[in-house]
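User: I'm writing a tutorial on reading structure tokens. Could you give me a worked example: one chain, its sequence, then its tokens, then a sentence or two explaining what the tokens reveal?
Assistant: Sure. Here is the example chain.
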Amino acid sequence: METKHPFLPIIIGTDMNAYNMAISFHEAYGIKPILVGKEPLSFTSLSTITETIELRSGLAEDSQFADILIDIAEKYRAPGKTLLLIGTNDLYVRLIIENAKILREHYVFNYITEDLMNQLQVKANFYELCKVHGIETPTTFFYDCKSAEPFEEEMMYPIIIKPSNGIEYSRNKFEGQQKVYKVDSPKEMHNVIQQIKASGYSDELIIQDYIPGDDTFMWDSVIYANSKGKTQLVTFAQVVLQEHTVTAIGNYTALITRFDKEMMVKLQNFLEAVGYTGFANFDLKYDARDKKFKVFEVNIRQGRSSYYVTALGHNMAEYFVDDLIYRADKPVTYLNEDFLFTVVPKAVLRNFVDNKAVLKDIKRLIKKGQYGNPLFYKKDKHLKRKLYLLARQVNYYKKYKNNQW
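And here are its predicted structure tokens:
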């Protein structure tokens, strides 16, 4: 294992987001991070960049998480090495924050407080915060699944139904479960609510105005605030495509970087006002009816599509390292460079993007070589992984052909 750097990254997760963070460290420092996961996933298990993966089946359990990470810390502790902890999904980040006091005895990391996490992740609290700070959100109601009363607010259809507590929702699996429901009538809405209640999910549901527009009306922003709360990076990007299967809606598969200083500063000011630290990833949608960007949520971590930040020379790993290891101060960067991030093949972009202006931009960026797919990282040499990725690319075409959102 390399030894020249005074830190070792410990990445929690084995999915695409974990892979993107792993290659960010490899690109910047030549380091192969340690991954910790509950199960092997092909993104990382077939990689030469992430060859050390500690699998622990109880990792996602509240009662086991801290003990597992302390055990990992003891295994990899070495003189002159600081262990840098990074989570890659909502559950792992929540567990890091809830166990922050004990984990700080073994690791350094940059996440928000538990109180702020609950303000941002409980959607009713988040939308109230947005209102206070002048951030637009869609018209939204909350329905408590513990209630025996039906939902009776007047809504214009179609509407969106989704869980307020995604972590609890994912623990109550049921046949036909969707990440987000788009429903067209009161009858369909009541059926969906009953199905979710019957699964055992007992938290709130978000019942929300559907903002019209295809995937290209969705937008993304990545912001990094250092451990002192000083913003160092703000980005803005237009979604080109998102996943179209019912279990994966909301996962972006392609986006183009854009520049909107007014909106970027607005999101930055919001995070600074609430005392945010670490990476944040906003999901927004442009509402052509009133010409405003509406915020859906903020993820309290980098997203799986946030790798475009690294691709444009603002390596995500370096933000963590410069902040937590070297205590370096950086001026704020408002990213203003053209780039097409994609995890789907060019044929999918050409055939399934209907927005002609966006399609024109896609062709321009591909022609200029200003695009990239992090899964095909050049220094990852595993042959079996390359075959897996090629099969995945073919499968993506079939998925978009057979699934319309």
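What the tokens reveal: The chain has a mean pLDDT of 94. DSSP finds 15 helices and 17 strands in the chain.
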